[in-house]
Amino acid sequence: MDYIEHTYTIQWVGPMNYEEYKEYINNPDTLDPNLFNLYYFEARQDKRYKWHTYIGIHKQNDGINKRVNPAHEHLGHFIRNNAEIRIWIGSFAKEINQKPKNIDIVETLFIKAYNYKFTENKKKKVFLPKESVCVINTYYSKHKEEIIKRKSDKPFIFDDVLIYLEETHCFMHGNLNKISAWENRFSLDLFIYKAE
Question: Global pTM?
Answer without folding.
Answer: 0.85
